[in-house]
What we know:
Shape: globular
Low-confidence stretches: 51-65
Number of helices: 10
Strand order of the largest sheet: 1-3-2-4-5-6-12
Oligomer: single chain
Distance between the termini: 76 Å
Number of domains: 3
CATH class of the largest domain: Alpha Beta
Largest sheet: 7 strands, mixed
CATH architecture of the largest domain: 3-Layer(aba) Sandwich
Amino acid sequence: MGKRVTLADVAQESQVSVSTVSLALRDKPGIPPETRERVLRAAYALGYRSDQPKAIVIQEAGPNSRSRSLGVIVKTEPNVPPQGNPFYSHVLAGIADACLNKRIHLLYTHLRVDGHNLPIEVPPVLTGDVAEGVFLVGMYVSEPLQRMLQERNLPVVLVDSYTSSDIYDAVVSDNFGGAYQAVNYLVKRGHRHIGIVGSGPNAYPSIRERREGYLKALSDSGIDATYCADCVSANDEPVEASKTLLQRHPEVTALFTANDSVAIAVMRAVQAMGRRLPADLSIVSFDDIDTAQYLTPALTTMRVDKVGMGRMAVQLLINRLEFPDSSLVTAVLRPHLVERDSVISLPA
């Protein structure tokens, strides 16, 4: 076994102090982005690993199968383990199920990122020869991470992930089309003053596409009025944004929310304001997480085939491994509307 790489080794390689290396790898403030990237690249080049185990084999291959190992890297959100994420837990289940059927070793790890979406640690599956290919789930692939992948020459499939370079196979949802269908559904139910909560022109690509679908649906319906409560979906921002929107525009009769988590926060805020759902305000959302059907009222939403995304990703990665020169593929899964109780029709 080779000598263990230490923080001192990384510091020497990146020409910074040991304390700077420690702060950079733990996402502490005060480290310039270019320094953090230099430290990360040095850590990757040396094969540095923290003491915390990051990779877990969650599926073993059968005794008569061809030995093959694939890695799953999921972006970690603060205080939310990826397995507990109401969306990505199902995606991971789809990946694991497909790998089980094909008797493939599957290794799971998470990737912490900083406020600039730069990776602040080196996932074990990107060091050595642990995995033949990787799934990147729920993240924007920053340039430093992309360079690492290129240096390793690893086949990659993006799963609800995005990058500025069109060089990877990908599985995504039809976010634009799904949002268009959701807003058009509200229009057909008689709503003309329809707001959107939880998006923004610079939001994560999937959320930005949903915003564009909202705007296009209204435009195609001849509706000029738009009501945008721009915010991120984390913390209490959707609550405050929806309250502000409804106070400024009491004429709004329906909301389209960027995802179900935003919808849950908005419903809580609306009810706290004394407005009845759906009698005073209709809501339609996106994703169809498990809790959507148990809300009061039960949430009308666009169902994304999350397990199917994972299964499709496995097919694409196997195809890439077996036919490395084949054309790039982007699989777009169409969501469909699940009607429940959160929308009412308005009189003509």
